[in-house]
Design goal:
- With 105 residues, the protein is mainly alpha-helical.
- The chain has a domain of 67 residues.
- 57% of the residues lie in helices and 0% in strands.
- The protein has 2 helices and no strands.
- Helix 1 runs antiparallel to helix 2.
């Protein structure tokens, strides 16, 4: 999904000219499955955010476990976007896999 870069990194939203018509049809069913997983993951992440709000309010600091769970949801979402929005034919796994996001300065 994207071109390989120095250090083993790859750009998630790189332009890919070739596209498979068969994958386009498979994508419809597959996207429903990953959307369900993403929806459940997102619901749990929302609950974690509410709990985190109370933790910050009461303790004045963040809980690392809650923060990591929400971070995992956001990374999973970004990992799926390229496939869901027809940027690539590389099918992501249904269940989350470790993905890290960095900002270039």
């Amino acid at each position: 999904m994207g071109e390989e870069r120095q250090g083993g990194l790859k750009q998630l939203f790189a332009y890919e000219r070739d596209a498979s018509r068969l994958e386009l049809l498979v994508r419809i069913v597959y996207s429903i499955a990953i959307a369900l997983v993403l929806g459940v993951y997102g619901l749990i992440a929302e609950i974690c955010m509410v709990i985190q709000w109370f933790v910050i309010l009461i303790l004045g600091r963040r809980n690392e476990g809650l923060s990591d769970f929400v971070k995992g949801y956001l990374e999973y979402y970004v990992h799926l976007i390229g496939y869901i929005y027809w940027m690539t034919d590389e099918r992501p796994g249904i269940f989350p896999k470790p993905t890290e996001i960095y900002e270039k300065k």
